[in-house]
Design goal:
Layout (H helix, E strand, L loop, with lengths): L1 E5 L5 H16 L3 E3 L8 H13 L2 E6 L7 H17 L3 E7 L7 H7 L5 E3 L5 H12 L12 H14 L12 H5 L15 H11 L4 E5 L6 H14 L3 E6 L5 H5 L1 H15 L12 H15 L4 E6 L10 H13 L11 E7 L28 H11 L5 H11 L3 H12 L6 H7 L8 H11 L5 H11 L5 H9 L3 E4 L2 E4 L2 H10 L2
């Protein structure tokens, strides 16, 4: 059997357990891949992806630190999607002194998989035997399906148990989406921007199509959650569908895709409806109008996050035409479609999602775009987090992150968190593989290298100041790696410039 061990390299306990498992599996004549001794770069990323396709089992070590690792999340995501489409690898989770809740994405992949627990050196052999039993076909029972209430409680417990200073790689919407109440969004270090007020206004009005557009990790999903909370306060019911959680198989098949939307609507609205074949856009429209809107008397908002995930699929045009028909029907059928709002979250340019103009929902709404932080906001955030920075330090930090919300929060956390470092050290090691942003940069590179020619396009932007072909440019911009400045394409910040420039050497 072939195994891939996924873990957080910077954590000593994780690394020690990983080494023990590699040795133990090797002694039983199994092949094992672990990423020790590999330098970050093109070959490294290609090897990680190749090995995920190669292995029969992905063993993932879940510690308090690794569950927030963007790279661990990326490896699990890739393995999960491959399993859904190809039947392998199986994922074997190992809890490493951590028995708290998992975040939104990891939980969606791992919640129904039985895990083994490690709580010290003596239990290492027990964990190894658990893995060997799985390899030999003695499968552990799957995890229990959990109710929506249990999922809400898990999400709340997760937030309550974590250091609020530490930024999350992605927002966890479960408590706010699954709850039928307008729960407050609690983040003491959230910084409202001008767009927050626009979202609040949209939530209070009937028959709206809201579009939120911004690159990766700019706060789109956080803004959407605040919109949905405001909608609930305004008396609206809500459905939230995240296309990022679709497997390749679910995304490629149009009938499976449509059925999945219908299933989510039924589950999230807690409807009791007879089983029926909802496998086309026309049937979905009829189902919502004749069944859903008959059962739900309140205004309803249907929110789609990460809409870009279906860009390029054969049914893309038909699906967007479907959403546009719902929007257009508001004026004709006020009692039904007149009380349906749509919310769409995208990373790419809306024009790329418009075919035929009048047949797309993206031509009826002006996108709301979360902005980068201004320097004054960064100063306020640094003060509240307890980072003692001079005006010159703040200016250098702003150049490094470009005001990127997640990177700014992460930089400040590195200065004040449990493994705090000096500001000089943060700047010196910023672009290093094992530096303060190493996990984030590795995850970025992993995603970039899954698209042919994208890394080279980024290097050309940095070194040659040339604009890449439109398709590659839009992918770089939606990933947050580049931006437009005075009509020119430039790196989004100094951190990405330094990191990708060293890959060109």
């Amino acid at each position: 059997m072939k195994f891939f061990v996924s873990y957080r390299r910077r954590e000593t306990e994780d690394a020690d357990l990983a080494a023990f498992l590699v040795e133990g599996l090797g002694k039983r004549n199994h092949e094992v891949f672990i990423d020790t001794g590999m330098r970050t770069g093109t070959n490294w990323v290609e090897e990680i992806d190749r090995r995920i396709s190669w292995c029969d089992f992905l063993v993932v070590l879940l510690s308090e630190s690794s569950v927030d690792s963007e790279m661990v999340q990326g490896e699990v995501r890739r393995a999960h999607h491959r399993f859904k489409s190809q039947g392998s690898p199986r994922i074997l989770p190992i809890r490493v002194r951590y028995f708290g809740s998992l975040d939104y994405e990891l939980d969606s992949y791992l919640a129904r998989i039985q895990y083994a627990a490690w709580d010290g050196g003596a239990s290492s052999s027990t964990v190894l035997e658990h893995i060997l039993a799985a390899a030999e076909g003695d499968e552990a029972p799957p995890g229990e399906d959990r109710s929506e209430r249990e999922l809400e409680d898990a999400a709340r417990h997760l937030e309550a148990s974590r250091d609020p200073r530490r930024p999350r790689p992605a927002v966890d919407p479960r408590a706010h989406v699954l709850s039928d109440q307008a729960l407050p969004v609690s983040d003491p270090f959230y910084r409202a921007r001008m767009i927050d007020s626009k979202v609040s206004v949209a939530a209070s009005l009937p028959g709206q199509t809201l579009m939120i557009k911004a690159p990766h990790q700019m706060g789109k999903s956080s803004l959407l959650i605040r919109y949905l909370v405001a909608c609930r306060k305004a008396g609206k019911r809500k459905v939230f569908i995240d296309f990022a959680l679709l497997s390749d198989a679910e995304r490629k098949d149009s009938q499976t895709f449509i059925r999945g939307i219908a299933d989510e609507i039924v589950v999230q609205l807690n409807l009791s409806v007879p089983e029926r074949d909802i496998s086309s856009a026309l049937k979905l429209t009829s189902f919502i109008q004749r069944t859903v809107l008959k059962a739900v008397q309140e205004p309803l908002v249907i929110a789609f996050d990460n809409v870009d995930q279906i860009l390029g699929e054969p049914y893309q045009r038909d699906f967007f035409r479907l959403l546009r028909s719902w929007s257009d029907s508001r004026g004709l059928e006020e009692e039904t479609w007149g009380r349906v709002d749509l919310a769409l979250v995208i990373s790419t340019e809306p024009t790329r999602l418009i075919e035929g103009g009048y047949s797309s929902p993206f031509s009826v709404a002006t996108p709301i775009e979360p902005e980068v932080f201004e320097l004054a906001l960064v100063r306020s955030l640094a003060h509240d987090l307890g980072a003692d920075l001079s005006d010159e330090d703040l200016s250098q930090l702003y150049d490094l992150t470009g005001g990127h919300p997640f990177l700014t929060r992460l930089a400040l956390y590195r200065l004040v968190g449990p493994d705090e470092m000096s500001f000089v050290e943060l700047l010196d090691k910023a672009a290093e593989e094992d530096g303060p942003f190493g996990d984030h940069l590795s995850a970025k590179l992993f995603r970039v290298n899954l698209v042919e020619g994208l890394r080279e396009a980024m290097v050309h932007v940095i070194c040659n100041r040339t604009r890449p072909a439109d398709d590659l440019y839009h992918k770089l911009r939606s990933s947050g790696l580049v931006r437009l400045q005075d009509g020119r394409v430039v790196p989004a910040n100094l951190l990405y410039t330094r990191f990708f420039k060293q890959l060109s050497r």
